[in-house]
Amino acid sequence: MKLRVIPAVCAALTLTLVGCSGKAADNSGDKQDKSGVKTGEGVSASTITLGALTDMTGVYASLGKSVTQAQQLWAKQTNAAGGICDRKVALTVRDHGYDPQKAIAAYTELEPDVLGFTQFIGSPFVAAVEQRIDTQDKGLVLPQAWSANLLGSEYVRVIGATYDVETINMIDYLLAEKRIAEGDKVGHVYFEGDYGENALTGSEYAAEQAGLTIVEQKIKPTDNDMTAQVSALKQAGVKAVVISAGPRQAASLVGVAAATGFDVPVIGNNSAFAPQLLKTQAGPALLKDYYIASSTLPIGDPAAGPAKLAKEYAAQYPKDGLDNGVVAGYSAASVYGEALKKACEAKELTREGVDKALLTLTAYDHGFGITHDFSDPAAPSTRQSAIMKPDAAAPGGLKVVRPAAAAPAAESFTVK
Length: 416
Description:
InterPro entries: Leu-bd, Peripla_BP_I. The chain is of the alpha/beta class. About 40% of the residues lie in helices and about 15% in strands.
């Protein structure tokens, strides 16, 4: 059974959602261009307009900026190469600052005028409009969120392993490296809501399979000081800690643990790191025994895909640093672009045409280490995760310590 948006977010969204569009879902406004290509919302004779709902001022500000700029770079490169379906690609960006009312208001504002969304940061916010997207709007949304609660929609498609699967792979790494063993306690610090609670499902399953005990510490996105959580986990005698939160919470957790002599490995989900953290007081502790999982190679990896993107991004944004948001944003835009090309070939450059086109991508490799299968909306596009460790010498601050793989427990896990 899917978890829904947490009550506090639901309450905050109620007034905004009342004003949702009541347009018909039959796409009766679809047209046909001179080449016989059927077009609809967000598509003119010269332009394909896509939306980007991001966070550049809230808890994921550094991630949001990198994701957005990477997608703008993709659009610029795509247009320089001739565009898609004889049209230029335009991105319309809104910063919601990880505020629920602003996020849903921005979606409501942009939805009538875009073909779909190349990003939407915030699992709870995406979940809040998922039913509307599925039954009414039907524009493809590629969220920068990995909650399994978003699976099952033909129009909201997660790129990569979901948080539960990713967390299973994280715990498998700790087991494989003999940092934890059967009978041990493992702490899990997690955001309330879709992200953290979905990750908790994964840690609980992994614990059940390996004979571990999970010690929970639930926090809010506004909680930045992890002193109380470290104290509780230290007292409980945990041998390792999983963190499913933001970069600030991860830095506080690792920094406080080091300062108090709590010497255990800490491993986080893909959004629990930013390279800027390495220049803070928590930097030495992060470099020592902190790890991150992700369904892409890091931007600093020497493989051809990341190396090429790092060079191009640095040339476009010379004053900005590199981080994994660059890879995440560019990957999502590339997937969207491939679906647009397939839709054009099928002469259906409409919302439903793009959705159908995505279903045909069964072995898509965007050049960042993992092949994705989008044919089943109810399944993650992959169950593989690469495990990375902070490295001050690597562009973007991360290096791979275990190549992308799916743990046996991740393969056997039933995503719900």
